[in-house]
Specification:
Keywords: Lipoprotein, Membrane, Signal, Transmembrane. Pfam families: Chalcone_3. The protein is α+β, with helices and mostly antiparallel strands. The chain contains seven helices and eleven strands. Strand 9 and strand 10 form a beta hairpin. It starts with a helix and ends with a helix.
């Protein structure tokens, strides 16, 4: 091998070695990129897992769960301290009425009556969020952020929507829509728990 060939080989090896760090910088779910880390309330969060919500044969949205530390069980996710984020990117247009109904159905299926009664005012406020947005369009990004000592704040395409909901029990009830015993999508739950 001459010097030029050796140099080209070394460059190719160096580039190949560098590629995985770029390839894993984001997780791709149905064309939606989820960054490995995001910042919520000034704190870096790690992507715990990401997956696809389907209904019958339709791709509805891609969702990612961000936590301070990766967790693989539901009790650990619900108990994790610090901020959290659920990031959703719509893959098809859905009316807010349809999205709100799915939210309510998921909440009811995974939360007991007593717990629902305790967080009812916040559930009602969350319903008002959907009323403000008639349609969620393909490509819209919805974030549900939990900040300790503040509460749950919703964002649509980076803009705050709705009021702050202060109770951690409410945020955990929302998380159980995807992570509860009767998740809205049985394949999305393990994906958010980082099992896929």
């Amino acid at each position: 091998m001459n010097r030029r060939t050796i140099l080209h080989t070394l460059m190719a090896v160096a580039i190949a070695a560098a590629l995985p760090s770029f390839a894993f910088a984001a997780v791709d779910v149905a064309g939606v990129k989820f960054d490995d880390t995001v910042t919520v309330a000034g704190q870096p969060l790690k992507l715990n897992g990401a997956g696809l919500r389907t209904k019958v044969i339709f791709k509805v949205y891609a969702a990612g769960l961000y936590l301070t530390d990766k967790k693989s069980t539901v009790p650990d996710v619900l108990a994790v301290p610090g901020p959290r984020r659920v990031a959703i990117t719509m893959l098809r247009e859905v009316s807010s009425e349809e999205f709100g109904k799915a939210f309510t159905d998921g909440l009811n299926a995974n939360t007991g009556k007593d717990e629902r009664n305790k967080i009812l005012p916040q559930i009602m406020k969350f319903g008002e969020v959907f009323a403000q947005t008639p349609v969620l369009k393909k490509g819209d990004q919805l974030s549900l952020d939990w900040t300790p000592n503040e509460g749950t704040q919703c964002y649509l395409n980076g803009k705050k929507i709705g009021e702050l909901m202060p109770d951690l029990a409410f945020y955990n009830a929302v998380l159980r829509i995807w992570l509860g015993d009767k998740p809205v999508d049985s394949s999305l739950k393990p994906a958010l728990l980082g099992e896929k």
